[in-house]
Design brief:
This protein is α/β, with parallel strands linked by helices. It has two domains: 2-125, no CATH class; 129-374, Metallo-dependent phosphatases (Purple Acid Phosphatase, chain A, domain 2, 4-Layer Sandwich). It is built from eleven helices and twelve strands. It has helices spanning 2-23, 31-56, 62-86, 88-94, 101-126, 164-176, 193-200, 225-234, 276-280, 299-304, 324-330; strands spanning 130-138, 148-153, 181-184, 211-214, 238-239, 243-249, 252-258, 289-292, 309-312, 336-340, 344-348, 366-374. It has a six-stranded mixed beta sheet with strand order 1-12-2-3-4-5, with helices on one face. Strands 6-7-8-9-11-10 form a six-stranded mixed beta sheet. Helix 7 links the parallel strand 3 (181-184) and strand 4. Helix 1 (2-23) packs across helix 3 (62-86), helix 1 (2-23) packs across helix 5 and helix 2 crosses helix 3. The longest helix has 26 residues, at 31-56. The radius of gyration is 23 Å and the shape is elongated.
Length: 375
């Protein structure tokens, strides 16, 4: 009951604040305008839970999921714009703007800003991500691996919106970068293998002479994670299920390890749970370690195990501003390169795709090229 009450309260706020701002709040619109806006917001308030349950519940209807996810993104942007727009009221009052002109100016500004942000966010979400280059010095890296290029993908979240062509174009961009190693740090898809097989298929064409490696994210544990690990193996990728590889070039070696997502142990799936000790058991001493771990919160354990560089995703950089403020309550880092424990570095990508609402606002997606340098 507490959970349901919390959901109802959140929904009432999400729809109520923009409804009050656009329809009431001293606007003195004609009655038909107020009625139309009221019906629109009431339909959204009633329809969103139904669409989300139908789309993401047991029935798993992709059309309902697309509609519900999009509505959620739009109302979040409207809510944010309404909150900020209402801060203009005292400013306009001080400048002598009286009602109803003051409230109407706020309403128009909120609607216009929300429309622009939604359109921009849609373009940003559906575009091929920009390539971001990062140089990472590693004290223990041998000269033979100096300059090795590792492309990091994460959070593709292939789901209700068919992005097969998008994935094919993404793979073309990755291959054009001529990487030595390609890694996917989890949250590959939202759905079972049978439902998303076609969207994931282009990953089988990724070229990387040293390794193609994959670890699970938290979303795999909604959809039988072991099946996704097995399927990526069938596509020629190395699933790092608490395991490691030893890569070698020109006499220099690098340990590429991976652990399950932080939520794996609680998922109830047998044999799953992040285990850094198992992942690094038998790894050669004195060789630098790059670890794939979906969530930045896993860096504390990585530092305790002497990992040189952890690669993570999960945060999406917040995806839709200002949601990043809530992400920071849960994760130590939002995005970028950071240092932990004196020896361990963490790179957190904003992610390659998007989850849920097909929007990215002030949190652009990325394909990350990490060039490892011998210090």
């Amino acid at each position: 009951m507490v959970f349901r009450a919390s959901v109802v309260a959140i929904l009432v706020l999400l729809f109520g604040v923009p409804w009050w701002t656009l329809a009431l709040a001293g606007n003195q619109w004609p009655a038909p305008v107020v009625a139309a806006l009221t019906v629109m917001f009431a339909a959204g308030l009633a329809g969103l839970p139904a669409l989300m349950v139908t789309g993401h519940g047991r029935r798993r209807s992709d059309p309902a999921a697309r509609a519900g996810d999009t509505l959620l993104g739009v109302v979040w942007v409207l809510f944010t714009c309404a909150v900020l727009g209402n801060l203009l009221r005292p400013v306009l009052a001080l400048t002598g703007v009286d009602e109803p002109a003051r409230s109407r100016l706020v309403a128009v500004a909120v609607a216009a800003a929300a429309l622009l942000l939604v359109l921009w966010g849609l373009v940003e979400a559906l575009r091929i991500p920009r390539v971001r280059h990062v140089s990472v010095p590693m004290a223990r890296l041998g000269a033979g691996l100096d300059g090795v290029r590792l492309v990091l993908l994460a959070d593709t979240h292939l789901g209700p919106i068919d992005r097969t062509r998008w994935m094919s174009r993404l793979v073309e961009v990755v291959n054009a970068l001529e990487p030595d190693i390609v890694c996917h740090a989890g949250d590959l898809a939202d759905g079972a293998v049978a439902a998303r097989r076609g969207q994931v298929a282009p990953l089988g064409l990724v070229r990387a002479p040293l390794a193609r490696a994959y670890v699970t994210g938290n979303h795999e544990y909604f959809w039988r994670a072991q099946q996704w690990l097995d399927h990526m193996g069938e596509l020629g990728w190395q699933p790092l299920h608490n395991q490691h590889l030893v890569l070698e070039r020109d006499g220099a070696r690098l340990v590429l390890a991976g652990v399950d997502d932080a939520t794996a142990a609680a998922s109830g799936q047998p044999g799953h749970g992040a285990d850094h000790g198992a992942a690094l058991r038998g790894a050669p001493e004195g060789v630098p370690v790059v670890l794939l771990a979906h969530q930045p919160t896993q860096v504390e354990s990585a530092a305790a195990h002497g990992v040189d560089l952890q690669l993570s995703g999960h945060t999406h950089g917040g995806q839709i501003w200002p949601f990043h403020l809530l992400v920071r309550l849960d994760q130590p880092v939002l995005h970028g390169l950071s240092s932990h424990g004196g020896h361990t570095r963490l790179y957190t990508t904003r992610g390659t795709g998007f989850w849920g609402p097909p929007l990215r606002v002030f949190a652009p997606s990325e394909i990350t090229v990490l060039t490892l340098r011998a210090a």
